[in-house]
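User: tokens in, sequence out, please.
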């Protein structure tokens, strides 16, 4: 969201207030609130919400706490617009709060498709949101099929591409030194999150991935998963493997600039992060996408989809590292936009009028149903 936030800051008619919550405020997950502040953004409010539970029930309790505290925060801040991105439960709470409190909700990245609970979260946010800023024409078509009015939908691209196109990330020579990455030999970036509907198997799934990496003796930069149910299982397994396998370097989190810099010098990204689907094509970076978390998402030719099996994952990594596969990615186009999303979003927000007509939604196909 950084390019979007900076574009908002640079627009005279807009005043930016950031509400920070979730993993940003958690020491366990890297206290990444400091990254927001280091980028020059002022935090208007901090809402602690994460509990210690590693289950779906624990996520629901966090959702409940956050929703209540968010209502109090919005009553204090009184924003004119609430801007949300993606499919996290925090975004669903924000969309519900905005809708109930008559605050126009602008949602980015609707119309996408994925696995686990993320997809119903995203589509529920869509139903509450008043304006939709989508990445592609296909996503816009999905929203119209859901009954959203075309006048509320704008195609802006994916904001995660902006920093890549503008080369706003850490250069290779700094990345190599800071993260102890050897310039010679293949390097993997590992980012694998739990799938809530498969949370009991999250640790075993990570074990299969790490087993494949171990057999290949692949130098790997690995980052902790998110705080969804099963995430702490994954962390325990990662720590166990990292102790006995010095080629794995493990991090709670990595700043955005450095993360993109690592993508730029890596030979493959492994796991189930959306960055392997959305950002990696701009780097011509092969992605071994594991399991169901990104199921159905629009993909470029850099993605190799596999199941949770070490042998299968290993074969996919070897394919991704092959010179033949790399040659096939020359001239690869990214389906998620051109890297100029931030200014587009700011222009749309600056023109937005929070009228009664905007807040009162109707199904886009209501007339055809009546006839």
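Assistant: Sequence out:
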């Amino acid at each position: 969201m950084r390019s979007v936030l900076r574009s908002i800051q640079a627009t005279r008619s807009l005043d930016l207030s950031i509400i920070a919550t979730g993993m940003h405020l958690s020491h366990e997950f890297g206290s990444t609130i400091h990254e927001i502040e280091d980028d020059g953004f002022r935090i208007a409010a901090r809402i602690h919400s994460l509990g210690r539970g590693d289950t779906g029930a624990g996520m629901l309790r966090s959702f409940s706490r956050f929703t209540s505290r968010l209502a109090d925060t919005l009553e204090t801040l009184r924003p004119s617009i609430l801007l949300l991105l993606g499919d996290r439960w925090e975004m669903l709470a924000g969309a519900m709060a905005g809708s109930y409190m008559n605050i126009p909700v602008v949602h980015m990245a609707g119309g996408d498709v994925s696995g686990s609970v993320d997809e119903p979260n995203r589509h529920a946010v869509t139903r509450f949101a008043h304006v939709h800023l989508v990445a592609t024409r296909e996503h816009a078509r999905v929203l119209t099929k859901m009954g959203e009015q075309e006048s509320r939908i704008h195609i802006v691209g994916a904001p995660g591409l902006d920093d890549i196109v503008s080369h706003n990330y850490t250069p290779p020579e700094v990345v190599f030194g800071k993260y102890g990455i050897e310039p010679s030999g293949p390097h993997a970036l590992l980012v694998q999150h739990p799938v809530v509907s498969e949370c009991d198997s999250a640790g075993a799934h990570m074990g299969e991935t790490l087993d494949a990496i171990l057999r290949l003796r692949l130098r790997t930069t690995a980052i902790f998963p998110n705080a969804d149910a099963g995430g702490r299982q994954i962390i325990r397994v990662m720590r166990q493997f990292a102790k006995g396998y010095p080629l794995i370097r493990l991090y709670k989190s990595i700043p955005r600039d450095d993360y993109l810099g690592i993508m730029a010098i890596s030979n493959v990204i492994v796991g189930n992060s959306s960055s392997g689907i959305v950002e990696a094509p701009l780097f011509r970076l092969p992605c071994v996408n594991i399991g169901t978390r990104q199921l159905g998402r629009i993909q470029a030719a850099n993605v190799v989809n596999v199941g949770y099996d070490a042998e299968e994952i290993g074969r996919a990594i070897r394919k991704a590292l092959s010179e033949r596969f790399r040659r096939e990615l020359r001239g690869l186009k990214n389906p998620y936009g051109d890297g100029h999303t931030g200014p587009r979003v700011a222009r749309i927000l600056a023109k937005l009028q929070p009228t009664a007509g905007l807040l009162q939604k109707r199904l886009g196909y209501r007339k055809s149903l009546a006839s």
